[in-house]
Amino acid sequence: MEKVKVVGFTMVKPASPTPSNTIWLSNLDLFATWYHVPAIYFFRPAASIATPSAADLKLSLSRVLVPYYAFAGRFTSSPDGRREIKCTAEGAYFAEAVSELSLDEFGVYTPSVENCRLLVPAHGSNPSDKNEKSTLFFSFS
């Protein structure tokens, strides 16, 4: 079996209505390079907490997208060319993956392009491309 197998993709929308405004990016954001920097974080659950299912994570994500509604929007440009976030409530891209490996079997995870390719799909990597989804969340079971 592959180290990690992606089994599905879903768009998770906010759990309730959100504002539909436009948010300008800060001057510091405007100087940033326009590409995603893949980052993966592993956390061991507390012994007293049951491991959440993909459905639990999707529900939690939909709830958190209400107060953080900009993350359910899309990058765009204003008529004068300034980069901004259009709060569209389109949702965040959620990828679900499975692996037979335990966290310990992954070994010491070192951030690299090769390791990120094991866990992060290639599409959705260009936040300025309006035809691609720009936010990825993963659930591993």
CATH class: Alpha Beta
Taking all Cα atoms into account, the compactness measure Rg is 17 Å
Q: Span between N and C termini?
A: 15 Å
Give the number of helices: 3
Helix content range: 10-25%
CATH topology: Chloramphenicol Acetyltransferase
- Percent in strands: 15-25%
Major β-sheet profile: 3 strands, mixed
What class do helices, strands and sheet pairing give? Answer: alpha+beta
Mean pLDDT: 75
CATH level-two architecture: 2-Layer Sandwich
Order of helices and strands: EEHHEEEHE
Number of strands: 6
The backbone outline, from C-alpha atoms, is globular
Family: Belongs to the plant acyltransferase family.
Keywords: Acyltransferase, Transferase
GO molecular function, one term: acyltransferase activity, transferring groups other than amino-acyl groups
InterPro entries: CAT-like_dom_sf, Plant_Fungal_Acyltransferase
In short:
With about 140 residues, this protein is α+β, with helices and mostly antiparallel strands. Helices cover about 15% and strands about 20% of the residues.
What would the keywords be for this entry?
three-stranded mixed β-sheet, disordered C terminus, Chloramphenicol Acetyltransferase, 141 residues, 6 strands, three-stranded antiparallel β-sheet, transferase, globular, alpha+beta
